[in-house]
Structures are given as C-alpha cells and as structure tokens.
Amino acid sequence: MGSVEVVAEATVRVEGVPLIDLHAQYLSIKAEIDDAIADVIAKSAFIRGPYVDAFEERFAAATGAKHCVSCANGTDALYITMRALGLQAGDEVITSAHSWIATAETITQAGGRVVFCDTDRDTFTIDVKRLPDLITPRTVGIIPVHLYGQPADMDPILALAKRHGLWVIEDSAQAHLATYKGRTVGTFGVAATFSFYPGKNLGAFGDAGAIVTNDAALARQMAMFARHGALGKHDHEIEGINSRLDGLQAAVLSVKLEHLPSWTKSRRAIASAYDLELASVSGITTPLAAAGLEHVYHLYVIRHDDRDGLARHLRTCGVQSGIHYPVALPFLRAYAHLGHKPEHFPNAFHNQSRILSLPMFPEMSDAQRAHVVGSIGDFCARKRK
Ligand SMILES: Cc1ncc(COP(=O)(O)O)c(C=O)c1O
Questions:
Q1: pLDDT of residue 384
Q2: What per-residue string of b and e applies to 97-136 under the rule 16 or more CB within 10 Å gives b?
Q3: How far apart are CA 209 and CA 61, in angstroms?
C-alpha cells in the first residue's frame, strides 16, 4: 500500500471510531507478522507442518489444556467435537438462547436436537437457574457460551452435568484467556472450542479455529475426524472431514498469541474506563462483570431502551456500533419450526432489542473513547429533555 493511501486511512480513523481496528493492530506488530508470513512462504509450509504444530502447542499451554487440535474455524471446532463425542440422532444438547448461530447449527449438523436455555438478563450467559428444567432422558450435553468474553457460571453447570452424566463443551469463541475463579476457560468441560475469526480477541488473517481438551483419546479422535479420518498418510480409520488450520494462519496466530495478554489488559482497562464514564449517563446500562471471573471484553455491550435511535445517533457522530445479536436464536427463522415464543426466553427477548456493542479494541485511544462516551452522553441528555 502506498503512503498516500496510508495517510488517507489514518485521517478517516481519527475522525471516526470503528468498532474494531484490525489495521491498527497489524501496524503495531507489522515487522513480526511480515517475517512470520515470509518464513512460511520460504518453507512452503502451507498445510500442517511446523507452524501448525508450534501453534497447537502454544495455544494448549496458554489455556492450560494438555491437547490442542486446530481446525478451519470455530464452527468446525464445535462440529468436530460433537462428532468425536459420538452424538446420536435425537440426542438433546442444551445451549444458550443468545449466541452466534454456529453454537446451535452444529448440534443439528452433528445429528442432535437443539434445546435452548434462556440467558441471564445481566451477564448475557446461560441462565443456570433454568437449566435443570430442560434436562430430559435424551439430554447428552450442555454447551455454555462465554459470550462477549465473559465466562458462563461454570460451577453449577458442571455440578448439574455430573449429576446427570452429561458432557460440557465450552464455546469459548469469544473468550480467549478469560478466567473463571482464577482458571483460564478451556479446561472446565470435556473440551472447549475457539474461533480465530479476524475480529476475535485472537484473530487470524482469515478463518481459523481450535479445540482444547485434557482427554488424549478425545483429542486423537477429533484430530482424526478433522483430517479425513486419518492420522497417518492414507491410513483412513474412519470417514472424516477436511478441516485444517493452514501454516500461514498458524504463524500469524503464534505471533499474536504473544501479545494477547497485553491486548487483554488493554481491553479490560478500556472497559473499566467505559464503566466509569457511562455510570452516570441516564438510560444506559453498562455490562455486568460477574464476581470471581475475568471478563476479556471481546465485546463491550451496553443496553438502552431506544437502542436503534442511539445507534443511529452514533453513526452521525462517526461512531460505529454493532448488535450481537439482533435476533436471539430461538426467534430466528431457522428455528421457527420449534415454535418458540418470547415468553419462553424472556431475558434473551428483552435483551435482543436493547443491546449495543460499542467500539472495543486494544489500540483504542483515550480520545476515541472520549468521543464515543461524549456522543452517547449527548444522545441521552437530549432524550431526557
Ligand atoms: C459464540 C461463537 N461460537 C462459534 C463461532 C464460530 O466461529 P467461526 O466464525 O470461526 O466459525 C463464533 C464466531 O463468530 C462465535 O462467536
């Protein structure tokens, strides 16, 4: 890219505040990334090879898990895990009513039946109080989602799973390095799945994903299934799929993983500042970080009764916002056949029209945050008149 384009882009950035700024992140570690990519190309290590092995080792260590099985994306990570666990037709899997569709659609793809559980109104994670009522003789597992970077309340989930002999898969796509009671997410359940979609806290330069587990036999089964059912060349023990992390993505991810702790610290500092500065703005509910855990703020999600009006106002101020997600899973057309009604999922229904994700990225400046907070303050002050 020529210098003129760089200057033009930088100007746009100062004037507005994007939801995330991947280019700023790239510029902050450009030399390391460029070297890593050049190395992969020099060695033609495009599929599996040393960069993938190294990343798997490093990522397992970062989560505290014994094994990491990389794959093509976070959706495949869920699908591969459930196939390796031997999900059978008609098996019921309980998951969060408010998440990205990947969490639910993979249950169906793996042959199971999706059972939605409402979310807690304030933490946005699965409502553990409602879980026991959803368990039937067909229930085989629970997939809590560490949504927006906040760990689900794992203790009651694990206790319930143990009582009923269920497996637990942590959907950790949005929660790299988040902790629950001092332990990093990823080793609470039988396995945990991660997405490295570019905008995630640890993001590749394309699609990428991984599964971590402490169970060696499960890791072997998952790796085999992800690689056409073969761990050795032409030794196909079962039919599988092709879901691979490529060498370029692995090399990029290994570089970025080194920076993840400091990026996470920055996200948490920005969230604290937002909390403080928005606390007195009338009409805004800031996100609740539950006690005993470390939220990693993949997204900073506020609520307002006139969410759409606020989003429109922010747009006119040059502030980008997002909605994650505007229609909770049970109310999507994809699940209309289940006949769910708002009163079945009152919290997810309440939140879907009020949530708004504000700009959140480690490189965000104080001036950018001040502009976001000031713009919200103006909107809310005008609403009060
Ligand atoms: C909660 C959740 N689960 C699963 C996924 C799927 O990950 P991917 O987009 O890498 O397939 C995502 C990513 O968007 C996600 O946010």
A1: 75
A2: bbbbebbbbbbeebebbbbbbbbbbebbbbbbebbeeebe
A3: 16
The residue count of the chain comes to 385
Cα(233) to centroid(ligand 1), Å:
30
Best mutation site among 71, 73, 75, 244 for ligand 1, i.e. most ligand atoms within 8 A of its Cβ?
A: 75
Residue of the CA atom closest to atom 8 of ligand 1: 74
- Amino acid type, 26: Y
Greatest alpha-carbon pair distance for the chain in Å reads 72
The confidence score (pLDDT) of residue 2 equals 35
> Which residues, given as ranges, of the chain have pLDDT below 50?
1-14
- Residue 240's pLDDT is 98
Query: Is residue 359 lining ligand 1, measured as CB closer than 6 Å?
Result: no
- CA of 193 from ligand 1 middle (Å) equals 9
What torsion, rounded to 10 degrees, do the Cα atoms 220, 223, 225, 229 define?
-80
- 109 touches 241 (CB < 8 A): no
CA distance 304 to 233: 55
pTM over the 0.90 mark: yes
* Cα 370 from Cα 17, distance rounded (Å): 10
